[in-house]
């Protein structure tokens, strides 16, 4: 679920000056974002509502959830509060589960959380709820050269017994030069291809098998450039609709884009989907097969 209030860029105090400061040579209209969403209340109710919707969609009771995995970007981690997991578990009735938070990988955190959550299935767990969240408290911080930030909480169920998708392979690679702001086109390209190679090798598949790609909702020219650098066809990307409406929702993007696509058509049996995210110093991806 995205933030409950719709905002427009021009509503942000000093937007024109903020945009010129980060991207003086580009017209904002060319970047493809029309509106963004903003949370207006405390975070925990949004998380609880997300958990409830995930469980309701699959007919799973709160008492049947073994693990709760939260994922968020680095900047938000310190804003959550040390009791956030307990508060969510109490309000959502998740009294039989063990919580965890995955972060410090920027917008790639939720894909690492997906890998972690999937790995819990088996002897340890039957049902894992994954919730990806990101928000920006100060509207002035929403304006970046690569994206306009929105607020969102998005979740999914990782389960032995429920779900239309299965995880076939994952990849995660890091580039320290990117973490300290000294990356280059070559280093960004290398980290993306390293992570993608990991995922395809694990799955025993090739890039040509991919039906659709769900990626970070950055500005449209930037997403297209990143896809070109990674050797991906522009027409396979699904991000433009949600990005135009919601902005860049941090590590929740790929999940929002996947849900937007499958809510309209449902998973196509036998299809192979690629979820991916890029961030300064990181690239993460996951291959999902439709059952």
Automatic annotation (TrEMBL):
SUPFAM superfamilies: Thiolase-like (SSF53901). It comes from the Bacteria. One of its GO terms (molecular function) is acyltransferase activity. This is 3-oxoacyl-[acyl-carrier-protein] synthase-3.
